[in-house]
Amino acid sequence: MKKVRDFKWKKNITVKDLVNELGHVGFQSIELNKASEVFVKMKKNNAKIFLTFTSNMVTSGLRGFFAQLIKLGMADIIVTTVGGLEEDFMKATGEEFNIGTFNSDDVELHEQGINRVGNLTINNESYMNFEDKMSRILQQLYEKKKRWAVSDLLKEIGLTLNDENSILYQAAKNNVPIFCPAITDGAFGFHLYLFQQNHEDFVVDVVKDFGNILLSTSHDEKKGVIALGGSISKHHAILCTLLNGGAEYAVYMTTAHKTSGSMSGATTNEAKSWGKVKDDSDIATVIGDVTFTFPMAMIRALEVLDEEDLLNA
Amino acid sequence: MKKVRDFKWKKNITVKDLVNELGHVGFQSIELNKASEVFVKMKKNNAKIFLTFTSNMVTSGLRGFFAQLIKLGMADIIVTTVGGLEEDFMKATGEEFNIGTFNSDDVELHEQGINRVGNLTINNESYMNFEDKMSRILQQLYEKKKRWAVSDLLKEIGLTLNDENSILYQAAKNNVPIFCPAITDGAFGFHLYLFQQNHEDFVVDVVKDFGNILLSTSHDEKKGVIALGGSISKHHAILCTLLNGGAEYAVYMTTAHKTSGSMSGATTNEAKSWGKVKDDSDIATVIGDVTFTFPMAMIRALEVLDEEDLLNA
Amino acid sequence: MKKVRDFKWKKNITVKDLVNELGHVGFQSIELNKASEVFVKMKKNNAKIFLTFTSNMVTSGLRGFFAQLIKLGMADIIVTTVGGLEEDFMKATGEEFNIGTFNSDDVELHEQGINRVGNLTINNESYMNFEDKMSRILQQLYEKKKRWAVSDLLKEIGLTLNDENSILYQAAKNNVPIFCPAITDGAFGFHLYLFQQNHEDFVVDVVKDFGNILLSTSHDEKKGVIALGGSISKHHAILCTLLNGGAEYAVYMTTAHKTSGSMSGATTNEAKSWGKVKDDSDIATVIGDVTFTFPMAMIRALEVLDEEDLLNA
Amino acid sequence: MKKVRDFKWKKNITVKDLVNELGHVGFQSIELNKASEVFVKMKKNNAKIFLTFTSNMVTSGLRGFFAQLIKLGMADIIVTTVGGLEEDFMKATGEEFNIGTFNSDDVELHEQGINRVGNLTINNESYMNFEDKMSRILQQLYEKKKRWAVSDLLKEIGLTLNDENSILYQAAKNNVPIFCPAITDGAFGFHLYLFQQNHEDFVVDVVKDFGNILLSTSHDEKKGVIALGGSISKHHAILCTLLNGGAEYAVYMTTAHKTSGSMSGATTNEAKSWGKVKDDSDIATVIGDVTFTFPMAMIRALEVLDEEDLLNA
Q1: What is the Cα–Cα distance from D244 to B97, expressed in whole angstroms?
Q2: Which of A72, A269, B300, C96 has the smallest set of CB atoms within 10 Å of its CB?
Q3: How far apart, in whole angstroms, are the C-alpha atoms of residue A93 and residue A172?
């Protein structure tokens, strides 16, 4: 049986060594270490990896890390909400987000045209620039065809960008599909609506895209889910693994608890009852802010996988 | 300045009297009492009321309460996720859900064909019956027309039902639109996909529905938001109020905290920075399990409104 | 198997009827209903009832309810922290606490001599008045004897008061001991220290009081624990039941989760591993703000017990 | 204004570099980075540093880290609960704790004599060995004198140990007082009680110890508080800084939220209203499991301080 071990700092300790030590420390550190181990296993065993995250994580600096993971081959399928994709596009086209505080004077921010997301802020101007660019892109896409599955649309948008740190760019370049089941739930939805007003035959086909995610993997293939935060991003990925026989590997990282019965707080164990993950799967649920739990667990996994030459060049 | 007041039990105390007393007790009780007051105000001032909730709340017995609120005129626009609508339909067609426990043996449940949602369970059989009925309905709808906005589709489905406790039924009957921005994120998505496989020209038009929610209210109209839980349901409603000049009234009830920057935990204050709610709006954020916070706060509001004859007969 | 049941509002619904209905609704409502049932059982079966709470609950209006419960015979042993006892004394001697907001300007409050506890406030003046009264009481007690067990000291203080809504008063009057294992952790600790400076032989004997709580019940007696919030109040009560063979009934109501391994979040299940509660005990853990979860669950229990004439007159 | 910066993994990244990067990532990562900065400042400016933690953290492998911090001069005053001190003693005398799971069969554990703390376990045997050793030590202490302030007692116990990783040992060796305001709230309380049964004149003087913590610092001295978790440990430290004019530096790391008005969730801002921390103090509140948030933030601080030769040899 694994023993609790006293943690001691050593000079210049690496993240990898810290996460290794945390495996003997207790509470959520144990789970974080286990999550890291599951990341390693899903890659080593060639699982198709679903990476899901919510918009606020793209507002944060995790955006570049997600893009890097796609490049390194650690994400084969992305599922997310549209807000994050909007912000990824904004950043890829020169917009910058600022660091503020959780205790802001929100009326004052509103007067200044500043929108708050926790302790981060986005200027109205960034949304206006986004609108300009997006309406031109929609025109070009419409000229290609009238009916678009969501993931195809997002790939085309990604191909218009040129930013190593962009999720849309890296996904398009590396043939990683991005699924976004609620594509209209953001500023982009408004632009799509305005465009359709003048182009009645323009259709965004969400039903078609259900087929696309369903066929993005199969019963025979091993499947791994990395669900950061809750929401439909998480649900859509595990619905897909459910319909494909269940995932062999699953890591849920969230601040939500199981006690309210919500999807955000639903555990990897609950997922077994549905067949979303297999009965004998490798699973971990880590409670904590994803902005640090995910980098820690994933960095250790990357170091291990890199030593064994299992990452893309 | 309002004083803290010692609470004392009196025999046969009503919910209304308890919630009135809680307004002097402290912490989340203060907020719950305030939420109740905002409910009263939004109705008295003829605001267009957006009611949003997540699927797990429909799994729970709140489903009948939501249906009742539609009937009473306390909800003019519904925004939710598709899982809840599936379960509303199941219950309306005779399926029953069971009460289990949070600490289940999920592998055993899986073997028995039982799916767990917190401490509630749904049998696989209910999903199979749902599939049968839904494929027939889709055929009928397809015969009417090929291209459907989501809320129109949901209204037609509601009209096929006959259950006072059904959200879909009451909404259809009372001309309350139901918006579901991620209509494919559930078993229903799978059925839509299968149907489209054989009916290539069948289209679910989510972009059109963005226009529908946008035009469901206006800048001139007063607007109130009741957001239960987080997810795209909450976001979609406040995106709509934002585009219509901001809500005058907003109550958020959730178990999520603002500290992770998520939409689920985003406060009514943060919403002011975006213009989702107006600077001088009446707002309340209540932290706690919606299965009891919402009935308590809403029951007091109903009693008050009923005394003034402001509810539908 | 218990079914989920749709909840419907009926005019003038009582708290009792609501809590009965919540037993069929789901998630934490199920647990809240169960907690209420455990309250009934522990009283019906003549268990010795430990009621524990943290100071902030006494700052709130629950204070009067706790006092009422002592009077009604629903609490045989109180365990709490000293802050709450200070505030109970303040209120019993005329001080009033105010309702503020969670988002205060704390620097401004500090300048005004106002201390904040969440969305409640206490004036510096109340602490000064407390000091005046307490130093006179300590002098009187010292004249009686030099060495005091904590619960004896608190009883004497309670006897100086005359307020139906006071915990100290009702406990003293009804021979309900109050245990406070960290008696010095508050303003009262400072006053004790100042007093001892001039009365070197004055001793507060915490070790003696451990014997008092230990002997306040026995292996043979049935025991019930109602732990509101976490902290040493909760731990001290269940340590006592552990040393007396374990409790037959236990309800934990808290906002803390089990995931961090803290005492505040420790569940009634975890308590079984220690023998703090018996293997076959009746238990419930309710997650939520105690200012409303506790009144709801307890009011229903009081109504049931009152009908069977099981409450003190 | 500080910008959000995309995070990118670099091979062999150190904890220090990660925490530096997290300062630009967002949400709790921002706060964690700030906490680290406050740790550096309190040491650089020669503040008297209060380190407080709850028992479960000593059950975990943080115990060795706390001991190391005392040795390095990063903690001048310790405040904690007695459970942690018992476990520190056990580990120092050869007992080992195991890693289990949050979802245990607690009845089975109980039968096996295994006590669970989250996902860690402690054997009954460890408690029995503790009892043997402690009764001998109490006898020796009693022979020295009859009346003991708590911190003096704990120092004597620390001097009997010889374990670099022990908090009691390092504290005794480095003249760092340990305050434990609820000394009887654990197995140790039971042993004290049994001992006093046969030695009636044995007194543990908690009032005297209030003076000791009060005089452990002064108005003139700069003060810093590192409060890990909530409970009386946190409260006792900030009560002491309040009585000494307020702390210049404060970091709260916890999983509790401010919404319930509890001490565990009380923020560094709320502390300003009381004068517990100064109006212009450097403060940070980090929400998350302390088993990883604290090592991360503190490791970066240690690396920075070590480069400037500000740690004890």
Answers
A1: 59
A2: C96
A3: 16
How many domains are there within chain A?
1
Residue D40 sits at φ, ψ, to 5 deg, of -60, -45
Identify the pLDDT of residue A231. 86
Q: D117 has which bridge partners?
A: D120
| In chain A, beta strands by DSSP E | 48-53, 77-80, 98-99, 114-117, 120-123, 147-149, 178-179, 203-205, 223-228, 247-254, 277-287
Query: Which has the higher per-residue pLDDT, C266 or D93?
Result: D93
C84 pLDDT above the threshold of 90: yes
The verdict on residue C130 lying in a domain is no
pLDDT, tens digit, for every residue of B166-214? 999 999 999 999 999 999 999 999 999 999 999 999 999 999 999 999 9
**Euclidean distance between CA atoms C56 and A272, whole angstroms:** 40
Q: Determine which helix (DSSP H) or strand (DSSP E) holds C121, and give its type and residue range.
A: strand C120-123
Chain A CB contacts of B117 under 8 Å are: 261, 266, 270
The residue among B269, C183, C57, A307 whose CA lies nearest residue D260 is C57
Q: What percent of chain A has pLDDT above 90?
A: 91
Q: pTM for the complete prediction? A: 0.97
CA D98, D102, D107: angle at the middle one, nearest 5? 85
Looking at the domain assignment, is residue C239 inside a domain? yes
CA separation for the pair C95, C72 (Å, rounded): 25
Q: What is the CATH number of the domain that holds C232?
A: 3.40.910.10
pLDDT tens for each residue of A37-96: 999 999 999 999 999 999 999 999 999 999 999 999 999 999 999 999 999 999 999 999
Range of the domain at B139: 50-91+127-239+252-262+275-290
Cα–Cα distance measured from residue C32 to residue C53, given in angstroms and rounded to the nearest whole number: 17
What letter represents residue B258's amino acid?
K
**Is C136 within a domain?**
no
d(CA C209, CA C150): 6
The catalytically annotated residue of A43, A155, A234, A276 is: A276
pLDDT at A266: 87
Tell me how far apart the alpha carbons of residues B129 and B150 are, in angstroms, rounded to a whole number: 22
Note the pLDDT of residue D261: 87
Largest CA distance in chain C: 67
Query: So what's the ipTM on this one?
Result: 0.96
The answer to whether A238 and A263 have CB atoms below 8 angstroms apart is: no
Tell me the pLDDT of chain B averaged across its residues. 96
pLDDT for the residue A263: 82
**Closest partner residue to D259 among B260, B261, B287, by Cβ?**
B287
- Picking from B105, B116, B259 by the largest number of D CB atoms within 10 A of its own CB, the best residue to mutate is B259
Asked if the structure places residue A228 within a domain, the reply is yes
Which amino acid type is present at position A259? Answer: T
pLDDT digits (tens, 9 = 90+) for D155-176: 999 999 999 999 999 999 999 9
Does A44 participate in catalysis according to the annotation? no
Burial of B136 (0-12, 13-18, 19+ CB in 10 A): exposed
Distance from C-alpha of A66 to C-alpha of A55, rounded to nearest angstrom: 12
Residue found under tokens 């409910």: B39
Please judge whether B182 and A181 are an interchain contact, meaning their C-beta atoms are less than 8 angstroms apart: yes
